[in-house]
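As the next step, I selected for study a record pairing a protein sequence with its backbone structure tokens, which the following lines show:
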Amino acid sequence: MPNKPAALFGVLGHPLAHTMSPAMFSEILPSVAPGSAYLAWDIPPAELDRFFNAATVLHIAGLSVTIPYKQTILRYLYHRSPAVAAIGAANCLVLREGLWHGHNTDADAFRESLKSRRIEPRSALVLGAGGAARAAIYALEAMACPSITVAARRAATVARESYFANHTVVPFDDQLTRLAEDVELVVNATPLGMYPNSEQSPLATGFRTGQVAYDIVYNPRPTRFLTLAKEAGAIPIDGLEMLARQAAIALSLFTGARVAWEKFLKAAENGLRSQAANESQPTEKRL
């Protein structure tokens, strides 16, 4: 594999305590682009404009984008890929000649993780209506899933958005359990249960035997959502494979190099183990 020029990359989000992107790219990049660096930029919303001004000056070559900015960053884009234009969210930015080009690698990663397991759901309940949820819906539509229901905190507002026009939008209420029991696939596309708020779950009941429960959250592993699903007999899928698959696609967009997603998965697993080991140490030893 030919080496690529050294460059600066990173992940943008707020907060970023959960992210394994630096762990993955810091392990993979040296063999692809020696001298390159991948950093974590935890930027509060009020500082986002200043960050992008600095990013252009610093010639940051590529950005992974996570919550809560997958939709917000669209205003900084010069070019949107067809997937970004359709989904209305981007999670991968590449700087070309001083201009940001946006891509969505989440949708392909989500779809491939289901296809590799030969899962072709005929009905799905997607919890959430943000960037990750939109990518999951886009992927399910590409798989010709005939029935997709979306659960949103602001259901009435979300239902008026054109992106959700062909799907049923419901609130998070007492009826959600019954709706969950009726579908083949339940997807958590909310940040509920994400480290460090590991005891949360967007759904406490409604899982059943034979159903597939997919949590896009990957830290902790397993999440409370997937623990409850497994206890009820559902088939759990965590978001770490999706993270690894989208990172492999992002690397090819960043550098042109192709690295198997399994290598990213191994790096992410190493990162989670390191984080857990660090958290288990006495406070004075971690200072």
Notes: The first helix runs from residue 21 to 32. The CA atoms of residues 26 and 194 lie 22 Å apart.
